[in-house]
Amino acid sequence: MSEMHTPTTAPYRPGLPPVPARLRGRPIVRGYPVPWFVAQLPDGGYDFRVADGRKVAVAIREQRCWVCGQRLGAFKAFTLGPMCAVNRTAAEPPAHAECAHWSAAACPFLNQTQHRRREGGLPETAPPPGEMLTRQPGVALVWITKTFTLFDDGKGGTLIEIDEPTQTAWYCQGRAATRAEVLASIESGLPALRALAEQEGEAALAALAAHVARAMRYVPA
Question: Is the confidence at residue 30, as pLDDT, over 60?
């Protein structure tokens, strides 16, 4: 079933966390503000699963928030899955801290715990850069840093290497995630990373183990 929806001026859905001021001017679809990165479809509607790939370059070049589209300050907040915390790689540009925290708490996709993404009715789009895991991680991480670096994914795309965080916060189903929930999500995602590392050999497996140990510093106590 298609998930294309036309924006309205309807109120926000009940139970939604308070919407940041920067997002209050965005169109509203199904009671949610439409993030800046979501592509507008030919019929004028939106499918929250479809990002406008052209905005990646704009966000990076003009230092714009991926969620609200306004200018960023000194701190950049990435909303990540746990495997991105392991390899410190992001495919999407950063956001304001308040936009990232709100997204992690309110976004239905980030709040779901089903194992696979819903793919039905998706329009044709270019694949994202890097190796995307299609599972639902069950937890989301807001990783705030001051700096990041762009690099080529080897397939014509661009990825982001995120630097040391100044702050991290884990979410699960709209609330603070527990240590057990974060650990379970990491463990369920590692087989996919191990499979990729195994294709590259022992050095890659050793690097993955080091990256996992490094990421464990940011798991909730």
Answer: yes
